């Protein structure tokens, strides 16, 4: 939405070159060796969750980043795909049908696709605010239905299944986390590649055009509504695949998989990562999953911080993390990254320290108010402090103030350095 | 044989004010037709009615004899009519090359394909490169269109319009805001790419109009007060009085 | 018949409450093109501020002060947040207000905890004003109706009689032309945003004691408010009013008439399946009206969008 789509495909080079394949091969290799580096079960669980979130975020960005459609109800397509897959797992358990488990996500995808085709038929009529509101309404509607249509959604407790009843593939019955990991990784690679290729098809290209200037696209022979519809359906398909993988991983789906909180989280993940680039949501999913996991371990207030980071991102870095990375391509090409090091150290670093100080003060305030009477000791940044001690309060406030003051003082210098780093030496353009 | 474009008793009102007040016009195949007239006469509105951007109030519009009533812009475009805009209307965040390539997609029959890759079609990419060559923007091909200079964006606008190879091309003030040399270049380009095609254009530069047009219509306050060859229109006293006199004076 | 009357009153209370939110939201949307996702969060803030104030000085000062604080907060959000994001376009603006809604909920939880706080109606209004065949109508409900009515009349007067109101009206009907009027548009925007959020704050103060003051109250009502303005037609004040009352009554009536699908279907001549608990259609048979009540607004919205894409009263493209 804010950054640019650079497509540098030279016309003649239509085929697959090593340069275009290299990132994909590296990613596949990376996925293959990760379990050897992080072998324990909890790490693998986190990686599985990451992979599912990546697929979902990429699917979400087909709407937001590539098609300019903001959805507040996309969890529905993932959730429905997931519910369907749990039911299929149960049918496999009953012996009603049988198939290999790795095929299951495909059915989740098809179910998501079917639903997207239905809802999209009226929701994609308009983009922008209207689309956003319809997506919200439909999302709430289906989330609310989950307590009514007990047959499908299982009411309050949801539906659960057992993944191990599929036809074994090469003797693998998916009893172990690691087997599920490779299944998930396979679908991650496949879905990501397909979504990337979709963005290079005629309708994928026109999705960008319609996002940028829907009216002009109409004067080129394309109906903006149908272009959006195709993106929407494709996105529903891949969201459904993510849902199928969720079903395989957790073997249970509940109302939580459909509701606004989940839809909002994927918006947050995608936006943090950056909507302007294909790989943005991937970064977003990885960083968010790690951040949430780590923060959750250390503080009850993690959602407060995530919310604050999100709002700050929208206000100050609308390109997200990918946008921040991409901003540095020009200085890198010009060989001027060196110019930036010092201002980063003197401005951004104090800014971060100030932010951490503020978080520290928040934690102390929270502890002072919430902890039991007489319990004054709390852990803060690997230290033991008393939440009632004036000295500790003075220290944390001083750090915060100093950090922000330094950051503010350095801001003009940073701006100047940034401009300098982005200007080519004379004689070159 | 029917005319390429035919307007009959065309009217358009915005609220209470009638902007187009009964226009009859017939433009033949492969004719280069210029529409001139003072600011606010309704020239752009006429374009918007023909291309389906605004619904008409009454009257008829026919393209190659086919009635266009109720058709959306994209449907009209598919019938072989392409237009440019007075206010530059491009895809600012996409690269210049992408802009042109998108303009070729439908015309080359790619439709809503999600099973073929744009980079795989030689015809598509070479076609886009060719257009870029024509509008002199090859050096800019990978820049986002939004950062081009005004004149370059105008050239891109024309490139997008002609890319699909439509046989009726409508240009709304293609040379507005361009320097003399840029204007000359664009006029040559227009002449070249509209060979054998029907061209309808709104233009204020009388040099361009008289150099390019086979026939001219003069639109004043939503009515066509004269239509004919450049010589006839120039000699028409009504036109002299209402518009041309002032416009020609301004030229000198 | 008496139950109908009671429901009419209850529905009116809900509808007017909805309108207090949806009117502000519509005003802001029409003027600035921004759909404020955090609008219901300001409603929640109104309730919490009033609760805090009521703890020390009682309910009545809170009714006045809390909306003022909320309005000032709203104006600040417009000035330092929204205006900054504005240049990126409407979608990022919407994302910004969405993020704000998340953040406000977290902040409220930080200060007041996750549980409901005991925000109560004032003693003075804690009695049954009259009763309709055994159903007591609390005075507080009547008070809510009066307050909302008074606010609308005030709003109507401001919109039709004052200079600012005329500018706002011009902006509503010709959004492009306001800039050319030569008025201080940013200031008007800030003002409208402040007033709109203050209205939400008032709604929060008077609804808090009845509907409960808890961190989820914004989400619960927020989605319904959005549905309301979509149903009414984005940007139409009359549409917002009609849709608010409609939804207020529909949900109230649905909640109080225990009509089961079983009765409807057998009435239509269907026979229930032998073994209901095993049937695939058991959910349809066991459906009751109070059960579907909460989803009726959403169903209504989908229907309206399918058959009247601009909403009941909307005419503008967004
Ligand atoms: N969408 C619209 N709504 C209301 N009035 C319009 C609209 N578009 C154009 N007009 C009016 O129609 C008249 C003709 O405008 P236009 O066709 O742009 O003139 P021209 O292109 O000949 O300079 C102007 O007075 C303009 O204000
Ligand atoms: Mg014009």
Describe what you observe in this structure.
The complex is a heterotrimer of chains A (429), B (252) and C (318). Chain A is mainly alpha-helical. Chain A folds into two domains: 20-327, ABC transporter involved in vitamin B12 uptake, BtuC (Orthogonal Bundle), CATH 1.10.3470; 330-421, no CATH class. Chain A has helices at 18-37, 41-67, 75-94, 104-123, 128-145, 150-153, 177-199, 202-212, 214-218, 224-250, 260-273, 280-298, 302-316, 320-327, 329-333, 337-370, 390-421, and strands at 159-160, 252-253, 377-380, 383-386. In chain A, the strands form two sheets. In chain A, strands 1-2 form a two-stranded antiparallel sheet. A two-stranded antiparallel sheet of chain A has the order 3-4. Chain B has 252 residues and is of the alpha/beta class. In chain B, 37% of the residues lie in helices and 23% in strands. Chain B has a six-stranded mixed sheet with strand order 6-7-8-3-9-10, sandwiched between helices. The model of chain B has no long low-confidence stretch (mean pLDDT 92). Chain C has one domain (2-256): ABC transporter involved in vitamin B12 uptake, BtuC, CATH 1.10.3470. Chain C is globular, with a radius of gyration of 21 Å. Chain C is mainly α. In chain C, helix 1 (2-32) runs antiparallel to helix 7, helix 2 (39-57) runs antiparallel to helix 3 (59-86) and helix 2 (39-57) crosses helix 8 (217-232). The chains are: A mainly alpha (429), B alpha/beta (252), C mainly alpha (318). Chains A and C meet through helix 5, helix 11 and helix 13 of A and helix 3, helix 4, helix 8 and helix 13 of C. Residues 14, 19, 37, 39-45 of chain B line the site of adenosine-5'-diphosphate (ADP). Magnesium ion binds at residues 43-44, 86 of chain B.
């Amino acid at each position: 939405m804010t950054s640019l789509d650079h497509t540098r495909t030279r016309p003649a080079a239509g085929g697959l070159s090593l340069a275009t394949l290299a990132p994909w091969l590296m990613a596949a290799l990376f996925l293959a060796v990760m379990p050897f580096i992080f072998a324990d079960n909890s790490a693998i669980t986190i990686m599985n969750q990451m992979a599912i979130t990546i697929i979902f975020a990429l699917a979400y960005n087909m709407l937001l980043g590539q098609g300019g459609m903001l959805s507040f109800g996309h969890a529905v397509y993932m959730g429905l795909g997931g519910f369907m897959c749990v039911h299929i797992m149960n049918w496999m358990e009953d012996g009603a049908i049988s198939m290999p488990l790795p095929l299951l996500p495909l059915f989740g995808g098809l179910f998501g696709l079917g639903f997207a085709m239905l809802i999209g038929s009226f929701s994609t009529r308009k983009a922008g605010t209207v689309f956003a509101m319809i997506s919200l309404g439909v999302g709430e509607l289906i989330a609310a239905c989950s307590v009514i249509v007990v047959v499908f959604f299982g009411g309050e407790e949801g539906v659960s299944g057992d993944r191990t009843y599929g036809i074994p593939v090469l003797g693998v019955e998916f009893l172990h986390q690691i087997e599920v990991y490779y299944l998930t990784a396979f679908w991650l690679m496949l879905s990501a590649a397909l979504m990337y290729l979709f963005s290079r098809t005629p309708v994928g290209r026109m999705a960008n055009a319609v996002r940028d200037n829907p009216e002009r696209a109409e004067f080129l022979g394309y109906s903006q509504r149908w272009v959006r519809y195709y993106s929407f359906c494709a996105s529903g398909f891949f969201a459904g695949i993510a849902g199928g993988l969720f079903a395989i991983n957790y073997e249970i789906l509940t109302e939580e998989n459909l509701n606004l909180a989940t839809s909002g989280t994927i918006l947050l993940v995608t936006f943090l990562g950056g909507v302007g680039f294909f790989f943005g949501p991937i970064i977003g999913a990885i960083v968010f999953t790690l951040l949430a996991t780590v923060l959750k371990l250390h503080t009850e207030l993690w959602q407060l911080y995530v919310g604050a980071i999100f709002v700050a991102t929208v206000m100050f870095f609308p390109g997200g993390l990918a946008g921040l990375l991409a901003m540095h391509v020009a200085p890198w090409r010009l060989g001027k990254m060196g110019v930036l090091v010092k201002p980063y150290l003197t401005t951004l670093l104090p800014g971060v320290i100030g932010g951490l100080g503020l978080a520290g003060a928040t934690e102390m305030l929270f502890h002072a108010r919430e902890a039991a009477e007489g319990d004054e000791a709390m852990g803060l940044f690997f230290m033991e402090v008393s939440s009632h001690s004036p000295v500790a309060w003075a220290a944390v406030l001083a750090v915060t103030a100093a950090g922000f003051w330094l950051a503010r003082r350095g801001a003009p210098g940073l701006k100047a350095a940034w401009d300098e780093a982005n200007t080519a030496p004379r004689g070159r353009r | 044989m029917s005319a390429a474009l035919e307007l009959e008793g065309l009217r358009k009102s915005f609220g209470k004010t009638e902007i187009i007040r009964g226009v009859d016009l017939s433009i033949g195949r492969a004719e280069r037709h210029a529409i001139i007239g003072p600011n606010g006469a309704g020239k752009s509105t006429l374009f918007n009615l023909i291309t389906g951007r605004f619904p008409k109030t009454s009257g008829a519009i026919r393209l190659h004899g086919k009635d266009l009533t109720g058709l959306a812009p994209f449907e009209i475009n598919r019938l072989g009519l392409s237009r440019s805009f007075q206010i530059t209307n491009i895809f600012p965040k996409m690269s210049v090359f992408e802009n042109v390539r998108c303009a070729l997609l439908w015309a080359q029959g790619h439709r809503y394909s999600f099973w073929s890759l744009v980079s795989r079609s030689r015809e598509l990419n070479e076609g886009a490169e060719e257009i870029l060559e024509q509008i002199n923007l090859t050096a800019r091909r990978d820049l986002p269109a939004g950062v081009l200079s005004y004149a370059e964006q105008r050239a891109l606008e024309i490139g997008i319009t002609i890319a699909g190879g439509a046989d009726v091309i409508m240009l709304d003030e293609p040379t507005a805001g361009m320097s003399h040399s840029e204007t000359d270049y664009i006029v040559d380009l227009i002449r070249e790419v509209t060979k054998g095609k029907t061209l309808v254009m709104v233009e204020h530069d009388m040099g361009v109009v008289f150099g390019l047009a086979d026939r001219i219509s003069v639109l004043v306050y939503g009515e066509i007060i004269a239509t004919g060859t450049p010589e006839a229109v120039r000699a028409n006293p009504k036109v002299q009085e209402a518009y041309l006199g002032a416009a020609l004076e301004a030229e000198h | 018949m008496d139950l109908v009357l009671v429901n009419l009153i209850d529905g009116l209370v809900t509808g007017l409450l909805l309108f207090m939110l949806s009117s502000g939201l519509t005003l802001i949307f029409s003027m600035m093109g921004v759909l404020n996702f955090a609008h219901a969060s300001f409603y929640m803030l109104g309730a919490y501020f009033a609760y805090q104030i009521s703890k020390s000085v009682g309910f009545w000062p809170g009714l006045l002060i809390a909306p003022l604080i909320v309005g000032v907060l709203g104006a600040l959000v417009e000035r330092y947040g929204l205006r900054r994001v504005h240049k990126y376009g409407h979608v990022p603006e919407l994302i910004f207000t969405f993020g704000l809604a998340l953040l406000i909920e977290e902040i409220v939880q930080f200060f007041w905890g996750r549980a409901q706080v005991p925000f109560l109606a004032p003693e003075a209004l804690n009695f049954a004003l009259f009763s309709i065949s055994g159903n007591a109508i609390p005075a507080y409900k009547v008070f809510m109706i009066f307050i909302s009515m008074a606010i609308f009349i005030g709003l109507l007067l401001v919109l039709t009689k004052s200079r600012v109101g005329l500018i706002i009206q011009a902006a509503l009907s010709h959004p492009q032309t306001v800039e050319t009027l030569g008025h201080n548009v940013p200031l008007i925007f800030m003002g409208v945003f402040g007033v709109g959020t203050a209205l939400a704050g008032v709604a929060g103060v008077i609804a808090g004691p009845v509907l409960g003051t808890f961190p989820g109250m914004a989400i619960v009502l927020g989605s319904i408010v959005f549905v309301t303005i979509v149903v009414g037609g984005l940007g139409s004040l009359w549409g917002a009013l009609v849709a608010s009352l409609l939804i207020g009554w529909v949900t109230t009536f649905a909640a109080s008439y225990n009509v089961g699908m079983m009765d409807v279907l057998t009435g239509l001549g269907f026979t229930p399946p032998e073994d209901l608990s095993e049937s695939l259609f058991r959910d349809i048979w066991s459906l009751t009206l109070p059960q579907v009540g909460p989803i009726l607004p959403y169903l209504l919205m989908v229907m309206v969008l399918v058959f009247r894409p601009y909403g009941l009263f909307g005419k503008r493209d967004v």
